[in-house]
Specification:
- The structure is a single chain.
- With 80 residues, the chain is mainly alpha-helical.
- It has one domain.
- 61% of the residues lie in helices and 0% in strands.
- The protein has 4 helices and no strands.
- The longest helix has 21 residues.
Length: 80
């Protein structure tokens, strides 16, 4: 989990979005893909997580990935 993520909802804007460097959708997609990569890398080397018995480290990684995936897919569904 990155420092920004601790204590913030996945729909909160990042400091970069506040100053206009990244559009919200791009930043959300970037965070979603990073969470996916982190979860997959962890799961690859963790036997409990491979068998759906989440370890202490893997459980929050999966939870973050799922939250960001849901937020990103909701964003896509709600686009004009």
């Amino acid at each position: 989990m990155q420092a920004w993520d601790a204590g913030h909802r996945v729909t909160d804007v990042t400091p970069h979005e506040l100053i206009g460097i990244l559009p919200v959708a791009d930043s959300l997609h970037t965070r979603y893909m990073a969470a996916s990569d982190t979860w997959r890398a962890h799961r690859k080397g963790c036997e409990p997580c491979q068998t759906k018995q989440r370890c202490e480290t893997g459980a929050p990684l999966l939870q973050r990935f799922v939250r960001l995936q849901d937020a990103y897919l909701t964003h896509l569904r709600n686009r004009p």
